[in-house]
Design goal:
The complex is a heterodimer of chains A (218) and B (537).
Chain A: H1 22-57, H2 59-67, H3 71-96, H4 100-130, H5 147-183, H6 192-216
Helix pairs in contact in A: 1-2, 1-5, 1-6, 2-5, 3-4, 3-6, 4-5, 5-6
Chain B: H1 20-24, H2 29-57, H3 68-104, H4 112-134, H5 148-152, H6 157-184, H7 197-229, H8 242-259, H9 262-276, H10 283-297, H11 312-324, H12 326-340, H13 349-372, H14 374-380, H15 384-414, H16 420-447, H17 461-491
Helix pairs in contact in B: 2-3, 2-4, 2-17, 3-4, 3-6, 3-15, 4-6, 6-7, 7-8, 7-9, 7-10, 9-12, 9-13, 9-15, 10-12, 12-13, 13-15, 13-16, 15-16, 16-17
The chains are: A mainly alpha (218), B mainly alpha (537).
Chain lengths: 218, 537
C-alpha cells in the first residue's frame, strides 16, 4: 500500500498523517487496542454464554464431562501461560527503560512459553482423542449415549480451539514486535510493544476464565 | 470557526489522481467513502431486484411466478444483501467516512490504511455472499434460524455465513476507526458538547458495531461447526437448544437495528438545523439520547422470542425494556419538531427527506411499541405487520435519511449542485411510494397474512396489489436520484464551499475539499449550529 499523501502540516516530523505529534499517535494506537480487546471480549462472550446456557440446563452432565479432562495438564499449562505474561510485562518494562537487549530477551521468553502452552494444549487434546472424547470424529463412541456430555466437549473444543488460535496469533505478533524492536532507533519512545503486551495479557486472562470453568468446576 | 482553509487553493481530492490505481489504493477517507458509495449502490440494486420479484409474485394469490424454493431464496437474498451489504454500511461507511474528519477538523480518520482495508474486507465478504447466491442461493431467511439452517436446509448456508462473518470485520474496523478518531483527533476547541449531532449518533453506532458484531461472528462460527461437523450445538435432537441460537443471533441483530437507524437520526439532526436555521433544540438531550438508544438496544433482544419459548418473566422484562427505547426516541422526535418552531424553514430536497424521516420513523417507532407489548405481539408475530414495522424503520427511516444526507452533502462531495426541482419530485415520489407499499402491509399483518409465504388467500389480494403498485412508485423514487445525481457530476452548477449557508467545519473548506481537508487545523470557538437571527432573515 502507498504511504499516505504528503500534506503540508504544522505537525512534528515523526507523527504519521493525520496525527499532530507522536503523543497523539500513541494515544490513538492504545485506544484502538483497547477497543479491539473489547471486541474480543464479546467474541469469547458468545462461547461463555453457550457454556453457561448448557451447564445451567444440565450441570451433572457438564461435571461428568469436566471430570474426563486431564486436570494436571491444564494446571501446568495455566502456570506456563501466567509465567509468559510475567515475561511480557518485563519485556515492556525493559523497553520503556530503553534497554533493547533485555527487552528482546524477555520477548523471546514470552514467545517460547506461548509455544510451550500450545504444545501442552496439543498433548491434552491427544488425551481427549485417545479416550474417544472428540465429538465429530468419535460419533458413536464414548459420548453417543450422552448428548449433553458431548455438548460439553463441543463447547470445550470450540473454546480451547479459539483460544489456541489467539495464542498462535499472539506468538506471531511477538515475532513481528521483536523484529521491529531490533531495528527501532529509540526503544524507550516506541510503544507498539506495549500494545502487543496488552493483547498477550488479554489472551492470558481468557485462559484464566476458561481453565476453572472447563477443568475445575464440578 | 476559521475560514483560513480557504486561503490557499489546492487541487481537490477528486483531482488528486484519476487512475484506477489511485482509487483502489487510496487512503483518503473521502475517496474511500466513494468506494463504499459505488459498492453499496450495486448491492442495493441486487437487493432491490430480489424485492421486485417478491412484489411481482405477490400480485396474485397463487404461486405462479416463482417456485416456493425460489421464493424462499429471494427473500433471503433480499434480507442478507439489504441488511449487511447496504443498510449497515450505508450512512456510516459513506457519509460517515466522508464527514467524520471534516466535521471535527482533522486531516483523515485515525487509521487511513485500516479504513481502506475495511473496504476490501467488505468486498471479500460481498464476494462470498454473491458466490453463494449465484451457485444456488440460501433459503433460511436472513435470520439463519436453527436447526433448519444447520441440519435441514440443502442450500449454501455456510458460504453465506462466511460472507456475513467476513463483512462483520469491515464494520468492526469502521466502528473502531470512528471511536478512536472522535476521541483523539478533534480540533482544538472541538469539545464533546460542540460535536455535530451526526457525530454523536455515529459514535453511538460505532459502539454498537464494535460490541455487537463479534457476537454475530461467534454465532456464525457455531452454525458452521454444527452444520459441517454435525455435532449438537443448537439441534434439540443432539441435546442442543435452538433458543440459544436466537438469543445469540438477536443479541447482535437487535442492536444492529440501531446501527441501521442511529446514523439516520444524526443526518436528520444536521438537516433540520440547517434548513430551519436554528440550533437543534435540546442539543444535549439529543446527543445523550443516541447513547441511551445504543445502550438500551443491547437490552431488548429477547422481544424477538416472545413466542419462542422464552420464560414468562423474561418476556415481561424484555417487553418493559423495549418500551423504554421509546423514551430517547421520542426525545429526538420532539426536539426535531421543536427545532422547526420559529425557524426559517426552507423546503429544499434534503429537508423534504428529513421531514419524511421524522414522519416515518415516528410511525415505525410507534408500531414497534405494539410489537413490544406481549398480547399484541402474540397476535401479529411473523405476520406482515412485523414486515411493515421494520421496513418503516429501515426503508422509511434509514434509506430516506441516507438519501437526504446524500443530497445535503452532495455539493460538498462533488463540488456540484443537483437539479433542485428533480430532487423535490424524487423525495415526494419516494414518500408516496413508501406509504403505498408498506401501509397496506400493516393491514395485511393485522388481518393475519404470515410473512415469507408466496401463496395467500384471495381476500388478501387487493392489499397486496396496492403494496406492489406502491413498490413500483418507490422504484421510481430510487431511480430518479440515480439519474440526476450522476448527470450533475458533469453538468451541475458549481456549488461553492457553502451552498446551503449551513454551519459546521465541513462547510468552511472548498467543495470538493483538498486531500488533507484543512490547510491549517481550525480552532473551534463556538457551539454547533450557531445560527443567528441574521441567518433566519
Amino acid at each position: 500500500m502507498p504511504t499516505p499523501m504528503p500534506i503540508a502540516s504544522e505537525a512534528g516530523a515523526s507523527a504519521r498523517v493525520p496525527f499532530a505529534d507522536p503523543a497523539q499517535q500513541h494515544e490513538a494506537a492504545s485506544a484502538a487496542m483497547w477497543v479491539f480487546l473489547s471486541t474480543e471480549v464479546m467474541l469469547f462472550g458468545g462461547v461463555f454464554a453457550a457454556y453457561l446456557w448448557y451447564r445451567h440446563a444440565d450441570p451433572a452432565a457438564f461435571a461428568r464431562g469436566s471430570a474426563l479432562l486431564d486436570a494436571p495438564l491444564g494446571t501446568v499449562n495455566t502456570a506456563v501461560l501466567l509465567t509468559s505474561s510475567l515475561a511480557m510485562a518485563l519485556a515492556v518494562r525493559a523497553a520503556a527503560l530503553g534497554r533493547r537487549r533485555p527487552a528482546l530477551g524477555w520477548l523471546a521468553g514470552t514467545a517460547v512459553l506461548g509455544l510451550a502452552f500450545l504444545a501442552i494444549k496439543l498433548l491434552s487434546w491427544r488425551h481427549e482423542w485417545t479416550r474417544g472424547l472428540v465429538p465429530a470424529l468419535h460419533a458413536g463412541a464414548a459420548l453417543a449415549a450422552q448428548p449433553r456430555v458431548e455438548l460439553f466437549f463441543v463447547v470445550y473444543f470450540i473454546a480451547t480451539g479459539l483460544h489456541a488460535l489467539h495464542v498462535l496469533a499472539g506468538v506471531g505478533a511477538l515475532a513481528v514486535t521483536g523484529a521491529a524492536l531490533a531495528r527501532v532507533r529509540d526503544p524507550g519512545r516506541w510503544n507498539p510493544i506495549e500494545l502487543t503486551g496488552l493483547y498477550w495479557h488479554f489472551v492470558d486472562i481468557v485462559w484464566v476464565f476458561l481453565f476453572p470453568i472447563l477443568y475445575l468446576v464440578r | 470557526m476559521t475560514t483560513a482553509a480557504l486561503e490557499r487553493p489546492q487541487p481537490s481530492y477528486l483531482a488528486a489522481g484519476d487512475t484506477l490505481r489511485s482509487w483502489l489504493l487510496t487512503t483518503d477517507h473521502k475517496r474511500i467513502a466513494w468506494l463504499y458509495l459505488v459498492t453499496i449502490t450495486l448491492f442495493f440494486a441486487i437487493g432491490g431486484a430480489a424485492a421486485t420479484l417478491i412484489r411481482l409474485e405477490l400480485l396474485t394469490p397463487q404461486g405462479d411466478l416463482v417456485s416456493d424454493e425460489t421464493y424462499n431464496k429471494l427473500f433471503t437474498l433480499h434480507g442478507v444483501i439489504m441488511v449487511w451489504f447496504f443498510l449497515i454500511p450505508s450512512v456510516p461507511a459513506v457519509l460517515g467516512n466522508f464527514l467524520v474528519p471534516l466535521m471535527i477538523g482533522a486531516r483523515d480518520l485515525a487509521f487511513p490504511r485500516l479504513n481502506l482495508l475495511s473496504w476490501y474486507i467488505f468486498i471479500l465478504g460481498g464476494a462470498f455472499t454473491l458466490w453463494a447466491m449465484v451457485s444456488g442461493g440460501v433459503d433460511t431467511g436472513w435470520t439463519f434460524y436453527t436447526p433448519f439452517s444447520t441440519m435441514f436446509s440443502n442450500t449454501h448456508v455456510v458460504l453465506t455465513a462466511v460472507g456475513v462473518f467476513v463483512t462483520g470485520f469491515s464494520s468492526i474496523l469502521t466502528g473502531l476507526n470512528f471511536i478512536v478518531t472522535l476521541h483523539t483527533l478533534r480540533a482544538p476547541g472541538m469539545t464533546w458538547m460542540r460535536l455535530p449531532l451526526f457525530l454523536w449518533s455515529l459514535y453511538a453506532t460505532s459502539l454498537v458495531m464494535v460490541l455487537a458484531t463479534p457476537v454475530l461472528a461467534i454465532t456464525l462460527v457455531l452454525i458452521a461447526v454444527e452444520r459441517i461437523a454435525r455435532v449438537g450445538i443448537f439441534d434439540p435432537a443432539l441435546g442442543g437448544d435452538p433458543l440459544l441460537f436466537q438469543h445469540l443471533f438477536w443479541f447482535y441483530s437487535h442492536p444492529a437495528v440501531y446501527i441501521m437507524i442511529l446514523p439516520g437520526m444524526g443526518v436528520t439532526s444536521e438537516i433540520v438545523a440547517a434548513f430551519s436555521r436554528r440550533r437543534v433544540f435540546g442539543y444535549g438531550f439529543v446527543a445523550v439520547a443516541s447513547l441511551a438508544i445504543a445502550l438500551l438496544g443491547f437490552l431488548v433482544w429477547g422481544h424477538h422470542m416472545f413466542v419462542a419459548g422464552e420464560s414468562f418473566y423474561a418476556n415481561l422484562v424484555f417487553s418493559f425494556l423495549s418500551f423504554m427505547v421509546a423514551i430517547p426516541s421520542a426525545v429526538k422526535v420532539f426536539n426535531w419538531t421543536a427545532t422547526l418552531y420559529k425557524g426559517s424553514i426552507a423546503l429544499d430536497t434534503p429537508m423534504l427527506y428529513a421531514l419524511a424521516f421524522i414522519a416515518l420513523f415516528t410511525i415505525g417507532g410507534l408500531t414497534g411499541l405494539y410489537l413490544a407489548s406481549l398480547p399484541v405481539d402474540v397476535h401479529v408475530t411473523d405476520t406482515y405487520f412485523v414486515v411493515a414495522h421494520f421496513h418503516t424503520i429501515m426503508v422509511g427511516g434509514m434509506v430516506t435519511a441516507y438519501l437526504g444526507g446524500l443530497h445535503y452533502w452532495w455539493p460538498k462531495m462533488t463540488g456540484r449542485r443537483y437539479p433542485e426541482t428533480w430532487g423535490r419530485v424524487a423525495a415526494v415520489t419516494l414518500f408516496l411510494g413508501f406509504a403505498l407499499t408498506f401501509f397496506p402491509q400493516f393491514a395485511l399483518g393485522y388481518l393475519g397474512m404470515p410473512r415469507r409465504y408466496h401463496v395467500y388467500p384471495p381476500e388478501f389480494q387487493v392489499l397486496n396489489v396496492l403494496s406492489s403498485a406502491g413498490a413500483s412508485i418507490l422504484a421510481i423514487g430510487y431511480a430518479l436520484p440515480l439519474v440526476y445525481l450522476i448527470a450533475s457530476l458533469r453538468g451541475g452548477p458549481t456549488a461553492g464551499p457553502n451552498p446551503w449557508g449551513a454551519r459546521g467545519l465541513e462547510w468552511t473548506v472548498p467543495s470538493p475539499p483538498p486531500p488533507g481537508n484543512f490547510a491549517t487545523i481550525p480552532r473551534v470557538t463556538e457551539e454547533a449550529y450557531a445560527y443567528t437571527d441574521a441567518d433566519r432573515e
